[in-house]
Structure formats: C-alpha cells, structure tokens
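Budget justification, computational time. The allocation requested in the original proposal was used primarily to generate structure tokens for proteins on the priority list. As evidence of use, we reproduce two of the resulting records. The first is shown immediately below.
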Amino acid sequence: MLSAAGDAAGGGILLLDGPWGCGRTTLLTHCVGRAAESGVRTLVAACSPAERDVPFGVLTQLVQGVKAGPQAASVPGDVTSVAQRVLSTTDAGEADNDLLSRRLYGVLLELAGQRPLMIAVDDIRHADLPSPRCLSQLVRRLPATRMVVVLTDDRNVRACSLPLRAEALRSPGLHRITVAPLDPRTVGHLVVEQSGAGVDHDKRRWFHEATGGNPVLLRALLADCETAGEVLAQGYGQAFLGCLHRTGPTPLAVVRGLAVLTDAATVPALEHLAGADIEPTGQALAAMTSAGLLRDGTFRRSAARLAVLDDLPAPMREDLHRRAARLLHGAGLPAPVVARHLVRAGRMPDPWVDEVLLTGAFAEDEPRVAIELLNHTLEHRTEAGDRARIRVRLLELESRIDPVAASVRLGPLLAAAGSGDLDVPARAVLVRQLLWRGRTDEAGELLSGLRGRTDSPVLRDLELWLAATFPALSRKTVAGGTGVRVETRSTAVLAELLGRGCGADVVAKAERVLREPLSGRCASGPGPSGLPALMTLIYADRLGAASFWCDQLLTRAESRGLPVVQASVLAAKAEILTRKGEFDEAATTARTALTLPAPGSWGAFVGLPLGGLVLALTRTGRYEEASRYVGRTVPPAVFDTLAGLHHLYGRGHFLLATDRVQAALADFLRCGELLTGWALAGAAPVPWRTAAAEAWLRLGDRDQARRLVLDQVARGGADGDRARAQSLRLLAQTRSAKRRHQLLGEAVGLLEDAGDDFELARALRDLGASHHALGDDRRARRLARRARQLAKSCGAKPFLDELGAGFDDPGEPARPDGIRSLTGSERRVASLAAAGYTNREIALKLYVTPSTVEQHLTRAFRKLSVKRREELPGELCADLLLRGSR
C-alpha cells in the first residue's frame, strides 16, 4: 500500500474496520510507525466523542502536524505559510468548505510532491461534521496523488461521517482490513502464555466468556488475576468503562440504562431511558455485542455493570432510577422490581410510591435486597401496625445474616405484641425467632396466646414447624401438612417421618418438595425452606439423594451470601458425610458450619453441627479436640429440639470411646426418653437403641443389650436401614455361629445399600469372625482385609487399631496402597468409572452432580497415579461386582 502511494500508480485508502477495543488503533499506530520508518511523511489525527462539536477539529490536528510536527523543518516555507493560513481560517470558524478543501489539498499535494504522504485518522465516526466533508473531497482525488489515507471506523454503527465513509468504500484504491474479537482458541493461547500451562480448558473458556474475546477486557482481566492472585474485577471494570466512553453518546446512554434496569431491560425501555432523539437502541446493543463488551444485550460480568453505575454522577443516577420506576410501574411490572428503583431514586411525589415500596419489600425474594427495601420503607411509614410488620420481617431476614445483632429487635416486638400491634402471622414469626435463641418461656407464653385465640392456617404451619424442629413445645397431634407453601410441605414431610417412620411415600414426598423452586423467605429458623425435607432423606438413609439435594441447597445459599443459611446446610452435609463414614471431611464441614456465622448465631439449634463434629472427631481418634467441643456450654433449650438428639448422640460416643461408659449410656438413654416424651414413635433421628446396647454390652449386661436390640429389630425399617443393620450386627453376637452368619450377611447387604462404610467395616469384621468360627479362613481373611481397607478409607483409626492383623494372611498380596487411600465416595465413583460408566451415568446412579463425580474422580486419579479411566486398576471392577453380588 505504501509503495503504491509512492509510484506512478497513485495513492489509495486503507480502512481498518471493526468494533471498539479489538485493535483498530493499535493497527493504525503500527502502520504509521512503519510508514515513518520507510521515509513516508505522516500526519495523524485522533477523533473522540468529547470533541465532536469542535468545528474542523480533525483538519486542525492535521494542519498542526504540518506546522509543528517532527518533520516541520523539511517543509518548504511557502507550504508552511499556506498551512498557517488554513489553520487561522479554521480557528476563525469560516464555513467555506470548498475553499478550505482547495487550500488543504494544495498544502498536502505540495507535501506529497516532496515524498509520499500518509494521513491517518483514528475513529473517524467521532469526527466533527465539517472535517469529513473536506476529507471526502480529498479521497476523491487520491488516485492522482502520492498520498495514502488510513481511517479506522466501525461500519456497523451509524455516524456523522457517512459521506467520507461512502467515498472511501467506493474508492478504486480501497484496501480494507477487518478486525474482530479474538476467537476462543486464541484467547486460550494468550491465557496460557500469561498464566502458565496449568490453566485448564474450563478456565480458558471462562476467560473467553468473560471478555467476549475483546483484547482490552482480556488484558485487564489477566492483570486482575495476576496482581490479586485471584479473579477480581477492578481493572476489568475500568477497562470496560474505557471502551464504553470511546463508543459515543448513544451506546453510552444505552449501557447506562442497561446498568440501571438490569433484568427489566428491554429495547423500548432502554430507548426511553437513553432518549428518543438518538440512533436506534437495538443497533447500539448489537454494536456493543459485536465488540464483545455485552453478551446478548447483557453484561458479561457484574463488575462491568458496577463500574458503569459508579461512573454515573449521583444526580443522573437518581434521575435514571426515577424514570425507570415510573416506566416499570406504568408497564405493570411486579412491585419488588419497581421498589428496587424507588429506594435509589430519592423522594418522589407520585401517590403510588409508598404502597409499592411496602408491597415490594414484603414480596422481595432476595433477603439482602429485601432488608434494604424494608429499612427504606420503615423511614416513611407512620402506622404502628405497618411499622411492627416491617420490623418482624427485618428480624426474620437479618437473623439469616447475624442473629445476635438482629436480637435487638426482639424487645420492641415483644412490647408490640403485648399492646396488640402484632397480627397472627407476625406473632408466629416471633415465636420461631425466640425459640431459635432458646428463649422458651417467652415463646411459650406467646404460643399459648395464639392457641387460645385462633386456629388459623398460620398456627397450623407453626405447629408443623414445632413438630419437625422443636417438639418439646409441639402439640402431640398435628393435623394437616399439605399447605400451598413449599416450607409447609417441607416441615410436614419431616413431621410425618418422625411420627410414622420411614416409607417410600415419605421419601417421594421429600424429593417432590426439593424439586420445587425453593423460596428465599425465612420462617423456619436457620435454614432454607427445603432443609426439613433434606433432613427427611438423611433420617431415611437415602444418603445418595440427600447428597445431591444438599449440594443444590448449598449452591443457592452460597450465592446469596447468607452465612446462617449456608451454615445450616453445611451442618446437614456434615451429617451426611458422617453417616457415609467420611469422617475427615465431615469434621471439616461441621467445623465450618459452627464458625461460619457470627458467634452465638446457632442458638438452640447448635446441637446438629456440634454433635456431628464430636462424632466425626471421635471416629478418627482425635479425642483431645473432641473433648473441647464436648465441654462447650450449650443453651438448655438445645435438648428441646431434634438437634439436641444429635448433640447427645455425638457426646455419648465420645464418652464411650474414652471409657466413660455409664455417662455414655445416660446420654443414649436420654435420647430415647426425649423421643418418648415428645410422642415421636416414627423414625428416630439417631439410632440411640443400638448405641445404648453397645454401652450395656461394655458394662457386661447382655440382657439389657438384647432387650434394646430386639426392640430395634421389631421396629422393622421404621428407623431406616442403618439402624436395622446395626441392630442385626449386635443381635448376631447373642446367637449361634450359623444363625450369626445369616444375621451378619443381612446386615452387610443393608449397609452396602445405605452407603455407610464405617458400619459396613464393622459388620464385615464380625462376618469374617463368623466365617473363621465355621472354619472358612480364606473367606474370613478376605472379609477382614476389606474391613481394614474401609476403616482406613474412613480415617477410623481407633477401629483400625482394634482390627489389628485379624484373619488377614500376610502371605497374600494386599491391594495397592492407592486403592486403600480412597475414601468410600471416591472408591464408589472410581469403581463405576472402571466399569465403563460415564460421569453423567455415575451421577444418576449415586444421586450426585456430575461436578461432584468429576471432583471425586480427579482425586482418585491422583491417589492411584493414573491419568485415564483405562488405567484404573481392574480390581476396582471386581470390587464393584462384589458389592453388586451382595
């Protein structure tokens, strides 16, 4: 191109076309630099939206380049004089374009006569109106000159430079280079080059999705990751703003409207906020999308939206929210959507504002947003009843973040209840919140008043909640349980399990509840509305399904940033892990559940994470650490809750393991006394009978142990398969060798299905001893070896020490240490993978997510020192067949 400008063939034009931030300016700068190195004289002008209204701004930059550039010394004096006159003419604001064009053409032609000349104009779409008209006349004459004109533009966006763009596109000397966002493969190469070879495919794909391949955004995001050590977004947001401010007033106004409207953004709504006298909004959105700045008309990352909002002057931001509120209210959008704008719009005189704020605050599903709306509404309500309702709702929501801090609201609300300013729903909420904090006397007084005055659906919901969580204050007979709210059905299914025992219908009901969209509203204490249904699956020994749904609830809790809700789901997860025999992970999870919220947040429900932690630590032999948690003071009201049973059960096993058998027996028997006192004859949350039987055996009282075990066996499957299997294992100790063998075989089968590796190891040990007594030492050795492998995978060091050498023949080859190091979950996943199942098929079989399967498989590969499924030991397939045969 440059050589063409210098020979007899005449000049030409180079158009660098493409969206913002994709390298047009960089390429133009490169062209100018190469031209200067080749001896070509260069004149450069850069356009910007801020200078669009300056007449002849582009021409002025070019002429100043002639007059004062680094090559000015080589310009003949007469040319310099003409350039000075052109500059003074433009400064004077003369509007004779033809005269200016002739003068400018003469100057440039004189310069090009000396040596080839390049004129480079960046972002021509932002040029002032007169300059492109003059340049378009120059473009028409290029073939007869030794000049090259280089322009950058985006042809997909309307601009005032249309005549120049048209002249450029039909010029016979046109050369066009189109730039575009980087493709995923190129982004991946750049990410690896910047971050190292350890960046996996998913991370490379994430970088492309987060930046749309826009080089400016990509560089900023890589810098964020490199400087902060994690993916932060400060540089990304500023890079987005830099691109945005170069786009011009239309896209800037549209994106500001998009940042304000968020999910309510539509093209008509954006047109309304951006102004009706500018180019079509849809075109601006398409241009931003083609540049990679947006994705399908939305922000790729929240950091971009926040940067745009922070960049807005406060008065403009308030005005946009006022206009958005009026627009959305007039369009009939839900009150919470409109209310989000009202709280940021300042005072508005519209008569509908106060009512929409109140309605929206109570209907808002996102707790932190609802808290903001409620606090704003509280400032403008004067009615005592409304203010009391608002404070009750604030108590509910704030308790999911910091219950201790939220407790300051209890005093005024109790006073409001005494003066009759609280309605029945508000009183029911207050009862729950008081019980959560262990204030049973005050809660009992309120509850008595409710029961004496009404039999409303609200009271029936409260009774269900009491039966499923705080049975000490529950009525012994609870009717109903099919309410319209997810939370009501969730607590009802748990109450049914506790009252009637395990059954396929109860499990099916629990899963149906968990499949429904879960409400963010808080009414049942420290947890999401699906938590009682999740505990139903746990108590029914459906640990695979419980693990799956626990992950779903945990993902939702983490995304909302509500520590108490998250901690309650983590406590349930720790219980699942303990029942599966994954004690190290259970201890870590329970410890996180205890420490995640502010101290004191658990209140009367602390027994669930505390009992799970003590039991997990006891099983792994960490008695010193467990003793610190056993000695922790808990509120007396803990033992009025189901969570208190978990505390007694965990503490009892710690006492049993540390040879304080009488104290352990007392804790186990107290579990039974509480359940009897609460008239809960269904599934027991903890298998207290078998635990107490073990303690009786340790004390040498076989009759008492047998009585409890027979009671448990007589309950059939009411308490789930684990409790039945434990009772069969203990019952076998009182039977003949042949009968013992049958009982233990049934126990092993039940525990295989239940997925409890620790109890399975204990049953295998006893079954091995039974085979040894019958003279089948080969089978006995194999069972003992497997029991030892399971105990090791569980981290159950005390039980592993108790096993000793057992019946294992040291002459037989042991399984590789890698297989022994697998946890129960990792082993199950690896066995299925070795058998040829895909990740999705494994997830369906084990009731977990594909992501969980992938994580377990990754850890198994690392422990087994393999890289592919094909390299998994064949012994895992044999292990799977052995499990299936049982």
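The second record produced under the same allocation is shown here.
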Amino acid sequence: MNLRVIVAAALLTSAMSVPALAQQAAAPTGSPAATVTIPGNQLPPPPLPFGGVIKENAKDSKPWWPPTVVPRKGAPNVLLIMTDDSGFGVPSTFGGVIPTPALDRIAKAGLRYTQFHSTALCSPTRAALITGRNHHSVGFGQISEFATGYPGYNSIIGPENATIGRVLSDNGYATSWFGKNHNTPAFQYSAAGPFDQWPSGMGFQYFYGFMGGESDQWTPYLFRNHSPIYPWLGRKDYNLVTDMADEAIKYMKELNASAPEKPFLVYYVPGATHDPHQPTKEWIDKISRMRLFDDGWEKLRERIFANQKRLGVIPANTQLTPWPDSLPRWDSLSEVKKKIVTRQADVFAAFTAYNDHEIGRVIQAVEDMGKLDNTLIIYINGDNGTSSEGSMMGTPNWLTVANGMLELPEAEYLRYYESWGSAETYPHMAVPWAWAFDTPFKWTKQIASHFGGTRQGMAISWPRHINDVGGIRNQFHHMIDIVPTILDAAGIKAPDMVDGIKQKPIEGVSMAYTFDKANANAPSKRTTQYFEMFANRGIYHEGWYAATTPPEPPWLVGTKPLPPVEQYKWELYNITEDFSQANDLAAKQPEKLKEMQALFMAEAAKYQVLPLDNSVLPRLLTPRPSGTAGRNEFTYTGENLDIPIGNAPSLLNRNFTITANITIPEGGAEGMIVTMGGRFVGYGLYVQKGKPVFVYNLLNLKRYRWEGGVGAEDWLGSSLKPGKHTIVFDFKYDGPGLGKGGTGVLSVDGKMLSEQKMEHTIPFMMAIDESFDVGADTRTPVDESYTLPFRFTGTIDKLTIKTGPEQLAEPDRKAMQDAVKKASD
C-alpha cells in the first residue's frame, strides 16, 4: 500500500470505533468499493491526497479512488415524523377519541413519551427539531412572517447551526424532507433564492413539499427541490396527504433499488392537521358515522381524560383543569350551531385519521423493504397544541380570521355545511374544540407558558434496541433532544466545524438512555427548559414550573391591546405532583417563584430570547429584506409565474395602478394578465370572451367585478380588436386606515369602461399559499367563471404596477414606526 494512503487513512480514522475500522477494511483502500467512517468533528472532512501512482503513461500508473464516507456499521435508518397543530389529547395513542393506528403501532412496538414538549408554534418547533438547539438560538423566536431584526427573531438558521440533515448527509446518509417547510425565510421563497435556507441548503438532498405555514391540500403550493410543480392539474382524485406518502414511498424504493446499504434520514412532516382542514370525503364520511362529537366539547374532555388515565399516559392523581369562563358551554348553543361545529370537529378528526393512515403506509413501506428492524422511527404528534386560531365559531375560510374578521353570519356556515373540507372551503374549527383536544391541560397553540400549547405525545420504536416494548416514559424532554438522540443512535458526533465555521453547541440531550427498561424511571437528563412565544413565558427546572398568565387569548389574533411584558402575572406549579398545571402555588411560595423567574431571565439571556416582545401588528408591519423593499413600481413582460407574496407588489391599504400593454392576435385572445391569490381572497385582471375584466375577491364573501363591453363606447364593440391595447385599472383608496374602501376605474386605450366603489378592502393578508402570476393563473381562480391555468393567449408586451404609500391611521402608523425603529435599533 502506498505510504501516503496509510498515513492519510490513519489520520482520518484516529477517532474511529472498531466497527468503523472493520468497515473500511471491507475493500482495499483506493478501490472503487472502499469506504471510510469519518471522525465527524469537521464537516466536510478534509480531502485525502491522491494515493495512486501517476507516470507518463497509464500502463505504468496506478489509479486510486477516494473512499466513500459511510456511517458506522449498523447505523440505523431514521424516519422522523411530525404532524401539525395537534395537542396531547388528539390521538387515540394518548387517550383521544380519533383513531391513529399508525401512532399506536409505533407506541406498541416501542415507547410512549408523556412529557415531551414543543415551542407552541410551528416553525420555531421545527427549527428546534432539526437543529437540536433552542428556537431563539437559531433565529426562530416566532414564524418568519413576524421576523424582526434581532438574532433570536430573524428566522435565519445560520451556518453555525448545522441541521441533522447536514450532519447525517456528510456522514454518509441519504437525507430527504417531505412535507411542510416553514423554515425558509418568507422573503426567500422565490427563484432568486438564495437557497442556503432551503432544505437543500440545510443538508437535505431531496425535498418534496410546500413552502410556508400551511397549504390548500387540493392545490398546494408545492415544490420539488427548488421548482414549483402542479401534480393536481387534470386530476379529480388529488389530495396532498396521499401524494406526500406516495412520493416518500417512491423515494425510499428508488433509494433501496439503487443503494440498498445506504442508510436514510426521511424527515416526514405532511402539514396536517394545520388549517385548512381538507381530508377526502371518504374519511369525512367514515368519521361522521362514528358520531364522536355529538355530546359536545365538555363531554369530549371528560372522555379523553378517562381514556388517558386508563392508558396510563397521565398519572392517576391528575386533575382535569377547569373549563374556562371565556369559552361557551355546549348547552348554551342553539341546535343549528351545535350541528355546524360538530361538522367542523368531524372534518378535523377525519383529517387527523386520514393523515395517520397515510403515515402508516410510509411505515409499512419501510417494513416491506425489510428495513424496519434497523430503522429508528420517531413519531411526534403535533408541533404545538391544537390550534384555536379558527375563531369562536370556526370559519369556512381561514383568511377571514387572518384579516381580523372573527364573526360571520350563520348563513355563511350553513352555505358550506355539506362541502366543509372540500376544495370549496379553506376551513378551521371553533376554539372550544381546540381546548378540548389539549386535554388535560389549559390553553392551546401559541401559548408557550402552558402545556396546552407545548405538550406533545410522542412514540419511538427501534427494534432490538428498545427492550421495553409498549412501555411509557415520563421523563421531561423537548424538541431539541431529538437531534442528539439520532446522533447517539447513529454513533455520530455533533461537528465542531462545518464548512470552516465554528458550530454552536447542541443544546439538547440524548433520550437514548430511556430506551433501556432498567432506566424506565430514571431521572430526566433534561433538568431545565425555558419556553417563550409572543412574551408568554415558562420555565421548567427539576420538577418545578413557573409561567406567565396569558393576558389575552390567541383567538383574538392580536386585535386587543396587551399590557407591557413586565406586568404579566406569574403562576407556579410543582408538576411532579400536578401533571396538568391545575394548582397554582405562586401565592403560597413567592420565594420559589422569584427563583424561577430569575432562572428564566438567565436562560433568556443565554439563548437569544431578549428583547421580549408581545406585539402582533408591529411585527407584521416590520420591514424585511425582499425583492419589493423600497420599490413602488414593478414591471414584467411575458409570462411570469409563482412569484411569492414576499416578492410581489402589495396592493393593501393604498392607491395602485395596473397598466397592461398587450397585443391581441387575429382571432382574438383571452386569459389571465395578472393575479394574486385565488378562490378565498385575491384579485385578477384578465380578458374573457374578448372583454377586459378586473375582479377583487373580498374573502370569498363578495366579489367586485369591473368589466368591459358593458356601457362601453361603440368603437370597442363587444371585444378587444386585434392589435395593441393598453388596459388600465386605477384604484383610489379611501384612507387612512386599515381595510378601507375605495374606487376603481377600468379603462382601455384611455376610454373608461367601468367605475365602481368598494366598501372594504383586504387589510392584512392577500394570500398564504397562492402566488403572484403574470400571464396565467396557478392553483385556484379568483372567480369561478374561468378554469385554470387560463393562460393568456395574446402577448403581454409590458405590465406595470405602481403603488402609492400605505395610508394608515395614526395608531397604525405609530405601530409601524415603532416596529421600524425596533428593527433598526
């Protein structure tokens, strides 16, 4: 063997285990089949020098191949699963009434964890899950849409925080991500990138999923790696939940066929049961026949609570926390309202059961490939508690709530009763259901101070490594503990350096010690954990828990003013004796409370939690880097599709003018010129039957339509003639203030065709899972009078959108100015 090869191999394997050395010896060094297990402290490892011989001609030379990096022998495959917006009391595995046989399967084959925690909100939880560090430590103190210019809140997972995808990838794993990606900054979704914050840039070699916090399941905002895709076009049977499972199974089969010995990390996060709740009709019918919710939300809590005690997932002395006075009692509802909200719960439950069924298909595929025995499966129920963001009566269109409309006429619910969950709706359920699904705890998603927002049921299986099959574990753990658990199982160390950048230490602890039956009741290795979201705070330490009392509930979506963060009331619990946080000891033990409050501040300073901020509107209005920053004129030519909302011109709360210079060919033309949004909110300028049309969709409650050819000049006739034309839609806003009305004028070639006044406009959010499209329409139409993709059959020579300044009322303006000042301090 060449001396340089021997020296290089010795250096590279100095920190290797015996199995790794044996694995390297399986093929001669320098051969195409040679493999090596790296120490892993530096990623990627330094390249080895060429170990062959190079002479003047090939017959006197000797080729040499660098060895393929592989993990240690026996390193497991990893299937990391997490659902969305699902509290502790949702799945049957943890006492819920909704059947979740796939989660049951993992629990019966492995362990159930009853004190496992999230951050109370989706993308912060996901950032913690994939990095092994606290959410503020990696810039995700909240979702990206509320990012501010502070290290703990900028929604940027920096290069000093390599993810589990990157670490495993560089150690020889095939890494993939299926489902929801809410960890790319919202201002970086476009084709302009950069892509270092996309899954590919975070070490996941393959991505199939949607961008942002949520997506319509029938027409999702879907990507394969960096490219938008539309697999539902021309299909009536499409649903993202099934498609996601199909794609994951296909990927694993292809990987197994190509490289059966290569271990995989499949990060499977389908996005259900976040709104919109959109299961298939088959599942809605199946769950509805079970009549799970006829007795109402209080009785549901009692049933779940009894089930939890029977299963042993809560201690026998646990108290069911009281029903809050702020929520209606079931008996106070009319029969019509009971019918409406029962339908909502049926659809949510159907979404849960359907999602678990498809997850079960993915798990079964692992078994069918013969890989189940060496696959570590981690199945986390929910990235936070059940969502109460659907308003007190629920909504057929969550965009109404997002725009501050918390009540709808009863007729609006009845209009969509039969179609609830279908493509005609973008639904969410009533708040009291969310509270019930978080049994036995208080509060819901967004509330980081209480376990209703943060306690997640979790099951882990790993055949032949977990020797207490079907066991229950009560140790206190957190999302940040998953990465070190995976690394521990794989025999891979967390790197010190990645791409030459010093890494922040992993802040989680491995849970692998709980796998052994002898350690079933071992003390938790997580002794301290802070919680914070929108200034609701909590701190756990050695069995004690202190928390602030939320001053206002999350279902008011920031519409009520909040007190200064230093004026929040605090509570104190001994959770070794009080599992559900039912007995507040703050008044009885003030010194202990002070001790815990001081500990919270120490942890907050350590993990980038400061400054504390409970604002909602100011964060929403905070300027962020984007393609629109500082611009008030936007120009496009030809077809431009899938421009994300963060890179599109905002038409909210301001004057705007859309000018389209187009060419109509012989024979006429029709199709979309420009659109944002779709069926549930948005606008579109298009040509239909030869006539120019502008539609403004006000939350699917009312559509304003300006149309040419009606009252038009005789020269126009009933359609645009072949040749060049200029279509203009000019809107004057009735500001200042949010969501005010205005007057729009549609004209062609300087001739006014239609003038109309709107009483209201969209104040906050024009789209979530829709894009800004020029020359066609993707996903859903703003008006049901056309079908997708409604491609413009003429030529868009030039499209110009000019926007005026936001016309905010003085309180709104002050909030924005405060946000700007805070972001720049």
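A brief technical remark on that second record: The longest strand covers residues 723-733.
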